[in-house]
Amino acid sequence: MFICVISFIIGACASKRDIREPESEVQAYRSDHIQELRYFDIDARAVVGAGATIIERNLLHALTSLRLIAATPATRSGIWPEIRPALQQLCNVIPGAALYIQPDGNYYSVEQGFTGLNLSDRPYFTPLFSGEEIYGSLIYSRSTGKKSLLIAVPSFENGEVTGAVALSIFLDDFQQLITDAIQLEPGYLWYALNEEGNTVLHPRADFVFLNPAEQGSPSMIRAVETITSGKQGYTSYSFAGRETHILYQKIPFNNWRMVLGKIGEPTEEDYLPEAYEVLADIKSIIHNELQKMDNDLNKMVQSFRGKIPERHIVRNSFLEFYENNPYVISCALIDPSGTIVYAEPSEFHPSEGKSISDQENFFMMQKNRAPMLSNSFLAIEGFDAVSLQYPIIDSSGDFHGSVSILIRPDIMVEELVTPIIAETVFEPWIMEPDGRILFDKAFGGTGRMLYLDYHYEEMRTFRQLGDNIASNKSGKGDYIHHSPESNESVVKLAVWDTMEIHNTQWRIIISYPPYD
Question: Is the model's pTM score more than 0.70?
Answer without folding.
Answer: no
